[in-house]
Design brief:
3-stranded antiparallel β-sheet, 6 helices, alpha+beta, Alpha-Beta Plaits, globular, 3 domains, Aminopeptidase, 5-stranded mixed β-sheet
C-alpha cells in the first residue's frame, strides 16, 4: 500500500519546481526550467524500477513497465505534461494542505486577504471531507498536470511493488509545452509503442473524455497613430477603438461562457492596448473540422 503522505510529498515535490512554458519561445522545451522537473522525473522512474527510461533532447520522457502475463494483450499508455500555464506565475509555489475539508471558506493568504470560497467556486463542495492542496493564492498550483504525473508515477510504483497484480506492457510518457499547444508536436508515437493511451489530465474523479476538439491560437495586432491630444483632431487614430470594433464583430454568443458540448467558440484570452497599438490574443476551438477552419478564416 502506498501511503497518502507519500503521494502528497511526491506531488508537492513536483509543484514546487517552476515549469512555466513560454508561447513566444521557438525552442522545445520553450523554457529551460522545464528541464529541472524533466530530469527529476526520468530519475524517479528509474528509481521506482521502470524499464527503458529515456529522455530525449527536447525533454520528452518515456518509460516501460514490462508485461507480467504470458499471453498477448494490448499495450496501453499513460501520458501527462509537466509544463504549467503562462497565464499566471508558477514560481515560488507555497502549497497548503487542508485535511478533511469542511465545506467552508479557505483562507489562502491572510496578508493579502485571499479567500477560496464555495460561494464563488461551487465545485469546492464536491470535495467536502477530502484532503485539498492549494497555493497561498499568489501563484498557480500546477496541478494541471503535475497531479496527472503524480497519479501515473504512483500507479506504476504500486504495480511494481505488487507483482501479483497482472497486467500487460504499460508505457508512460511525459511531455513539455502542452499548455502552449505544442505538447504533441515532437511526441514520437512509434517509439512510444502503445496500442492506445490515456492522457491523465481531466476534470472530476470518474470522468473519461474520449473525444477532443481542434484548437488554434491567434494574435491580432491593431495599429493606431499617436498625436498630442491638444492637436489631434483628424489626425489621431486610437487603436483601442478599432480593436473594440473587431471584438464586437465576432459572434458574441460563440464564447466559452455561452457554449457547451460540441459547440465551438472564440475565446479572447488577453488584451493589451494603447493608442498606437492594441494586441488581442484568441483561442479558437471546435470539434467539427470544417467549422474550425471557418473560424480561423473568419479571424
Amino acid at each position: 500500500m502506498i501511503k497518502k503522505q507519500h503521494i502528497i510529498d511526491r506531488f508537492i515535490s513536483y509543484v514546487t519546481i517552476d515549469t512555466e512554458s513560454d508561447p513566444a519561445s521557438k525552442t522545445t522545451p520553450s523554457t529551460d526550467k522545464q528541464w529541472d522537473l524533466a530530469k527529476k522525473l526520468a530519475k524517479e522512474l528509474e528509481d521506482i524500477g521502470m524499464s527503458d527510461v529515456t529522455i530525449d533532447d527536447m525533454a520528452y520522457i518515456m518509460a516501460t513497465l514490462p508485461s507480467n502475463v504470458d499471453h498477448e494483450v494490448p499495450t496501453i499508455g499513460f501520458i501527462s505534461h509537466f509544463d504549467t500555464s503562462p497565464d499566471f506565475t508558477g514560481a515560488n509555489v507555497k502549497p497548503q494542505v487542508i485535511n478533511n475539508y469542511d465545506g467552508t471558506d479557505i483562507l489562502l493568504n491572510a496578508e493579502e486577504n485571499i479567500i477560496l470560497s464555495p460561494d464563488y467556486f461551487e465545485d469546492l463542495l464536491l470535495y467536502k471531507g477530502q484532503t485539498l492542496i492549494t497555493t497561498d493564492g499568489t501563484t498557480l498550483l500546477g496541478a494541471d498536470d503535475k497531479a496527472g504525473i503524480t497519479e501515473i508515477v504512483s500507479a506504476m510504483e504500486y504495480l511494481i511493488q505488487h507483482p501479483h497484480i497482472k497486467h500487460g506492457t504499460i508505457k508512460v510518457g511525459f511531455t513539455p509545452d502542452e499548455e502552449i499547444g505544442r505538447g504533441a508536436h515532437h511526441f514520437n508515437v512509434k517509439k512510444f509503442g502503445a496500442d492506445w493511451a490515456y492522457t491523465m489530465d481531466g476534470s472530476q474523479i470518474g470522468e473519461l473524455e474520449y473525444e477532443n476538439f481542434n484548437a488554434a491560437s491567434a494574435t491580432i495586432s491593431v495599429k493606431g497613430k499617436i498625436v498630442h491630444p491638444g492637436y489631434d483632431k483628424g489626425k489621431m487614430v486610437n487603436s483601442m477603438y478599432y480593436a473594440t470594433d473587431f471584438i464586437n464583430a465576432l459572434p458574441r454568443l460563440e464564447t466559452p461562457e455561452h457554449t457547451e458540448d460540441y459547440q465551438g467558440f472564440f475565446h479572447l484570452s488577453s488584451v493589451k492596448g494603447s493608442v498606437e497599438e492594441t494586441v488581442l490574443n484568441y483561442i479558437i476551438r471546435d470539434h467539427d473540422a470544417s467549422k474550425f477552419e471557418a473560424r480561423k478564416s473568419l479571424l
